[in-house]
Amino acid sequence: MITYIYKKVAVRVASLLFPLSTFLVSACVDDINVGNAFLEKAPGVDVNVDTVFSKAEYTRNFLWSAYGQIYCTYTSGNMMNGAPIDVLSDSYHCYVGWGGPKQSYYPGGLTEDAQDTDNGNFMGKFSYSTKALGQDAGGRVSIYETVRKCWQLIENIDRVPDMTETEKSCLRGEAYTIMASRYYDAFRNFGGLCLVKKAFAVGEDFFDGRSTAWQTVEFIDSLIQCAINEPGYRWSVPDADIGQWSGRLTRASARALRAKVWMFAASPLFNNSEPYMRYTKTPTGLESEYHVWFGKEDPTLWSRCLQYCNDFFDDNAANGNYYQLVQPETQDEGGYRMAYRRAYRYRNTANRHEKIFDAQPTQYLSDEVVNGSRVNHWGWGWAGFCLDCFRQGGATPTNELMECFGMQDGRNFPYMDLYGAGKNPNGVDIFADRDPRLYETMVVPRPSFPSAVVGDYNGFTYIDTWYHGAMRTAPDQFGSEGNDDVASGYRKFKWMLDYSNDKMNDEYVGVSYIRLAEMYLIRAEARAETGDLRGALDDIAVVRNRVGLGRLETMNPELNLTSNKENLIDEILRERNCEIGGECGDRVYDMIRRMRQDIFTKPLHEIVIYRLDENGNRMTEGDTNWDPSTPWPKFEYEKPQIVNGARRWWDPGYWTNKWYLDPVSRVEIQKGYGLTQNPGW
User: How would DSSP label each residue in 393-408?
Assistant: First the structure.
């Protein structure tokens, strides 16, 4: 049993806890409007609790507004001034000066004062309590706004006259799951939280101060259990309803979230013999440390995570294995790539339902067409964020990400010694015969494309991102500032496909919060941590088999993965990056929960690819385009260290463990309801 010291600090609603306190503490819910003419009320007519729960249609729409607040790193409100959270990992880098990472994180300038807003542009990776200034309802939303909506529904849904008891139970389950996800989002960024356990009215006690990290994770778990216990909460959306309700949360969503929560909780950040960092400023002592530390290392937490994984898989089996990995139609690169693309990008393909918990489930509303154009519910819009961010170098893949992907036969990347002049005398193409997920993640030099994947790439029949190649927007300025989507030598492909607008606006794109492939990898990690290394390798093999990769331990015998737990954990993290990297910020949070200072502080690299002429000399002048009627060229490779936006973490002696968690907003601390600052800030 983990013990802790805890001091209660009661705060009344009237203390105006939040900048949006008028909405949060009153019975009025005028701000629940969503979509076109919500509740069909005339301008100036109040929409209150009585109204919302007077009709089933109104109640459903109220819940849909909470759905729209589920975390997704690719919506405008959840980006760091135009850059997704992935650019804090080793996989992507932000090159543009206006991006939040280059203004706050990279120079080491993030402060408790700038945590929530900075001149209307959010600089932190997650907001404690507020929307960013200038953002509308599609922007960054306080977790507590979502929490209040969910409690309001849970407490009032029995009043709805024209709704069956089964549907009421189902909607309660969805509300509990949404609420748990929002608390989990905040937990992995801040540690212990202030917990709201009901919808409060004016004059009632609001918070009991900041809860410990342990109390917080147990509270999240209790919300998930409440969801699971709802008798009407279905395991899946019936096939007949998929067209309209794809993306709705289910009991499967709750079970999967439970496993993911305990994976984070069991990891070394909180579950350790020592806190990740001691307090050096007031407040001091164990009372504050328990806000960011469980008080000891408890290996049974991994057993708990494993049990919740098994609960998911057992329940799935009992329901006909409804959730399955999308499988390739053909055993070749095109088949593997399309299977993977259907898994991460689309919902419900070929009767295989891989997505368990969608990050942007309200996208099902995008079938609505107004004035001949499809309505987009992504804030700035899917195309908008892509074009503004990625095309300008706001999130460009690193060479480290490229090396993360192994070979098509299942070997890890073997070419570490081929960088530099004269280092590739045999003309090895380091991009050939690779893990098919590499080609779905980033744009690398290729002579052709599988017809099953794409006929061409935005008009190009081959990819020439080498020095002076046609695809370079700034051919002499690798690592340049702005307007250079190949600033690192690579271009992002995942989500983007060929960068054409029709791929952004006319195709449904769904970002997963959790999909089935991750459930296998969570269980693999839990099995490894509990001593079942072979079971962990079996789970990894299921995921890798989808794209034709050989077993990890067989193809990489030098790693001794059947006996070396540390190496296996490293490989699981690498596999997670290859499979779900760039989806919902998981690579960043993997680095955080595993306390991977070694990865955070390791300088990252670009790539410069030089085409060689017939004499083996680098082509550095003029047009270096390739004639497709001739053999594919040979190349040499350099991997210079990134200097544009070099991160202070890379400077010797600069790193401190305070960076594992974000600072709590000073404004919130000064309101006096029991918040404490995280150590080091």
Answer: TSSEE-HHHHHHS-BT
Tokens representing residue 471 in the block: 């695809």
The partner residues of 442 in beta bridges, in order of sequence, read 492
The whole-angstrom separation of Cα 680 and Cα 652 is 18
What's the pLDDT tens digit per position in 491-527? 999 888 877 655 555 556 678 899 999 999 999 999 9
**Which of 165-169, 298-302, 401-405, 664-668 has the least mean pLDDT?**
664-668
pTM of the model as a whole: 0.91
| Angle, helices 586-593/565-580, rounded to nearest 10 degrees | 160
**DSSP assignments along 28-48, one per residue:** B-GGG--SSSGGGPPTT---B
Question: Helix, strand, coil shares of the chain as percentages rounded to 5?
Answer: 40, 10, 55
Answer whether residue 33 shows pLDDT above 70: no
Name the residue with tokens 């089933």. 56
Q: Which helix (H) or strand (E) holds 514?
A: strand 512-515
C-alpha to C-alpha distance for 58 and 163, rounded to whole angstroms: 11
Q: Which CATH number fits domain 1-70+125-233: 1.10.150, 1.20.120, 1.25.40, 1.10.357?
A: 1.25.40
Quick one: DSSP state of residue 20?
T
% of the chain exceeding 70 in pLDDT: 79
Q: Cis peptide leading into 283, omega within 30 of 0?
A: yes
Number of residues that this document lists for the chain: 681
Token code pair at residue 255:
């079970």
DSSP for 189-219? Answer: HHSS-----S---TTSEEEESPPPHHHHHHH
DSSP class per residue in 47-69: -BHHHHTTSHHHHHHHHHHHHTT
Name which of 25-34, 45-54, 558-567 the model is least confident about: 25-34
CB 597 within 8 A of CB 546: no
Domain ranges of the chain: 1-70+125-233
Q: 44-49: which pairs have CB atoms within 8 A and are 24 or more residues apart?
A: 49/152, 49/156
In terms of average pLDDT, the best of 430-439, 478-487, 507-516 is 430-439
Query: In whole angstroms, what is the distance from residue 125 CA to residue 27 CA?
Result: 31
pLDDT digits 0-9 by tens, 78-105 = 777 778 899 999 999 998 887 778 888 8
Nearest C-alpha neighbor of 51 from the set 147, 200, 156, 144:
156
In this predicted structure, what is the pLDDT of residue 629?
94
Hey, what are 676's tokens? 């404490």
User: Is residue 551 within 8 Å of 605, Cβ to Cβ?
Assistant: no
**Whole-angstrom Cα distance, residue 549 to residue 344?**
18
